[in-house]
Amino acid sequence: MRSGSTTGWGTVAAALPVLLAAAVYFPVTRSYFFADDFNCLLSIRNDDFLRFVLRPFAGHNLVVRNLVFYGSARFFGLRADLFFWQMLLTHLLNVWLLFRVLHALTASRLLASGGAALWGTSPVQLGTLGWYSVYGQVLVATALLVVLERVTRLAVTGDRPRAGAAAVWYVLLLAGSACFGTGLGVALAFPAVLFLLLPCVWQRRGLRAFFLTLPIATIGLYYLDRTIVPHFELLPRDEVIAGSISVQRVLTAPSSIPELVANGVDSGLRSFFVTFSQPPGLTRTVTLALFGAGLLLLLWRGDPATRRAVLAMGLLCIAIYGAIAIGRSIFLDPNALAITTRYHYVGTLPIVILACLVVGQLAHAGPLQMVPPVAFLGGAIALGIYGWARSDFHIDDHGASRAQLTAVVRALDAEVASHPVGTTVFVENGKPSARMLGPVMVTAVHLFPGRAAAFLLTHDTDELAGRRVRFVERDPAILKWYARFPETPLARLLVAPEQVPRP
Fold this sequence. Notes:
- Helices cover 67% and strands 3% of the residues.
- By secondary structure, the chain is mainly α.
- Strands 1, 2, 3 and 4 form a four-stranded mixed β-sheet that branches.
- The protein starts with 6 loop residues before the first helix and ends in an 8-residue tail after the last strand.
């Protein structure tokens, strides 16, 4: 494949994957909040700043993601469309950054454009892009790609990184580790990835020692957060279990990694031709065999820089999926874990990079050299459009969640309005809705306590049309949970049945 060299072709090649990804995922801007989103939004309204920002969740260190979520909530309110525009625009930035990384590694705008489009439009990314609570994983990808873009450019030019730039890389990767669990895997593995892609860093004693401290700093930041949080609030038992990374969990995690990587390769490379609802079949086996053969070809025929890149991306892939396996294998079996689409957003990045390196090697060694770039790219796009048209790809905008919150608030407004102005109205709090919180989070009733939570999200004070509102909560455990912080809005809104005046 002959890669075009004109400025015009370069602009088109860089813009094409961004436009294709935008076309596929633009509908996410019409999505609404769901499950964990409501718990986070409620906490931002009810809890103080540090309690929310420092709070880990499900074993993740989320300090940076929580900061972003907090800022978004303060600026956007309940405008879900603005949250998801933020999600989409960050994803498109990641697609463009991936293009630049691939261009540096393959020296082909054609391969870079095709690879970035393959990753950016892949339906497996919906598991992340369709749920704002997982925005932290998109930020992990941004941090990784920003650093990889600079590292691969330096590898091409032969320049050495400046100390200031290296410090920025370090901070970005450390921040990524506090966005989502996959960021832990990236930060822990990146020193080795960096030394493979830029051997000159290893040869500089100061930089080598500096980056060798990154895994230590990553683990230290993870446990520092969990040490500080109990000074503000006790961690739930489930969270303590999720964050207790024992030797046994580390030793049992490898059993889940092969299936995670296999599904990452399959979904990352076959895109719209994969259906997770069906069990793995012959096509996946063929895909894995071809991918494995391609990697062996790279290690056999590739130049030293290519071989190092293969090892670096392979290590990065295993580290990302290893972090997921350590964090989730105690809750999900390997098959269920592997088909959870939100765990493949970052992991498919090194997989697509490796696939592009394989195609680049084949192009240099075979008849693909004679294929015009426009014809090759046009055929790939046509195949992708065919796969998209025949697939069952559908973006759930969580309209049921929006409708349920609207219905709860309207019913509450009508009930309160039936009482005289100037009185205190006592209404039954009820239980949270599974239509809003999903089948898992709805069981943690203390995180979103019924109608009081919906009221707090949608009203600035405890008054409605001149009437003070109180919610009768009949679960003592929920009352006890919020009584720990009597100055918070929910502690004032929730009352025990015996506090209701007798008629």
